[in-house]
Structure formats: C-alpha cells, structure tokens
From TrEMBL:
Start and end residues of each ABC transmembrane type-1 domain: 67-291
Pfam families, per the entry: BPD_transp_1 (PF00528)
PROSITE patterns (UniProt xref): ABC_TM1 (PS50928)
UniProt source species: Planosporangium mesophilum
UniProt main location, coarse: membrane
Keyword hit for Acetylation: no
Recorded topology in the membrane: Multi-pass membrane protein
Family: Belongs to the binding-protein-dependent transport system permease family.
Domain of life of the native organism: Bacteria
The name this protein goes by in its record: Sugar ABC transporter permease
Annotated keywords: Cell membrane, Membrane, Transmembrane, Transmembrane helix, Transport
Amino acid sequence: MRHGKRLFIATFLVPPLVLYALFVVSPYVQVFQLATTDWGGLSPEAHFVGVDNLRRLFADHYVWNALRNNAILLVVMPVVTIVLGLFFASMLMVGGRRGRAGVRGVRGSAVYRLVYFFPQVLSVAIIGVLWKEMYAPNSGLINGALRAVGLGSLAHPWLGDPNLAFWCVLAVMVWSNVGFYVVLFGAGMQSIPRDIYEAALLDGAGRAATLARITLPLLWDTVQVAWVYLAIVALDGFALVQIITEGGPGLRTDVIGLRLYSTAFGEAKFGYASAIGVAMLFLTLSVAVLALRLTKRDRVEL
C-alpha cells in the first residue's frame, strides 16, 4: 500500500518538477554562466572573461542612471499606490454615512471597485499604448481636454519634456496598480468587525484617525505583502517604459530592465546583459528581504 502511494505521488510530481527545472531553473543557471563570457548572442563563440563584466557594470554610468530612476520608483511608487489604495478602499468600505445600519460603505461601492480594478484586466501593452496616445502633444486626450476647457496654456509635450517624462510614466504605473490594491485592501477590511469602527466614531475619531489607528494596524500583513510586490514592480518597470518612452528623452526614463534589453538586443552584448540580469536578481532579492525586515511589526489580533 505504501509503495503504491509513493508511486502515485511520483507519477504526478516528477513530470512537473522536471518541466520546471528544464524551463525555469535551467535558464537561471545558464544566465550565471553567460555572465562570465563576452557572448554576442548570434555566433556560438563565447570567450570566458571572468569578472570583467562585473567590473564594467560598476563603471557603467548608463546602468547607474537606470538604477537611479529605479530607486526613485522604489521610494515613490509603493508609497503613493498603497496610500491611495487604503484611502479609496476605506472610503468604499466604511466611508458611507452613518445611519441605522451603522458604519457602511458608500452607495454603489461594487461599481466603484469594478472601475478601479479595470486596469488590471488590460495587458501592459494596451496600457502603454493607451497612455502614450493620451500624452500625445497634438492628438492626445490630456492636451485636448485642457484646450477644451480654456486651459490650452497648460498643454504640454508631456513625454518630450525631460523634466516631466519620468513623472508621467510614474503616474501610469500608479494608475495601473492602485485598483488591485483597492480591491485587496477592501477584502481585508470586510473581515474587520464594524463594532470597532462604531466605537471609534462614538469616541469622536475622524475618518483619518480611524484609518491610521484601526484599519492600517489590522491590515498590516496585507500592506506588508503589497509593499514587497510593489517594490519588485518598481525595480522592473521595463514594459511600460519601453512602450511609452523607450527610455527617453535623454535616458531620463531609463530603467534597469530596459537597460538590460537594450544591451542585449540593441548592442548584441548578451554576456554583459546577463551580468546586468544577475545583478538585478540579487538587487531584487535584497530589496524584498529589506522590505520585509523594515515593515515587520507585531501582529494585531482581533
């Protein structure tokens, strides 16, 4: 009987593990090997260069420029997304008027959640193309709306301005992610007893105090996971940046993912690009661990 059980488990477990090792683990191992070569990506010839790619990486100002942009995204994007997500979720779930039923959400909250979540249904490619057209200086919806209401003086070549292009991309990243966390935080708030909010309101606590002292501590585990996930998204950002600005103008919106892509497919330096990928892997793991450490706190039980 025990032998049959082991055979049954092996039959269903071994094939997925083999496929995972072949198509997921194997490419990671190959990247580490390629990072020590000067492979160009086309010819089978690849010469071993050891840690030369790593030394070059530390001296590459294009890489440091991309990392600087990623660092700004890492600081700003998770904070803004989580704050907006908590605010909207709080207003939808407990922001309605207090009546006989006590604390409740606003009327039509299900429709609002659907609207907020809609960007998650769209692919990254569609979001990038959509916002690139909206930012267009002549035919874009943003400048067109400004001109329609008599504010044509505020119309701007948003993606062509080196001082604004990065923040335009950041706004798109927040817009495309905040809806998911509105739904996520809203689901977490549904498990918080309404009696707690009732007691807080009877004691004279306002909406802001209720959010900061009740909702946030009770949702901290969810916020912690959101912070780690958004930090990983901020360290990537490749797809949106590549579609909307292609790293310009003047590499003001360049990120490390796009720098890796440009190095490999634009300059045909797959060995050096692999070194960038390895550095990006360790950087992402370090940021995830650091985020978990910094956001660790005692769990609040109901």
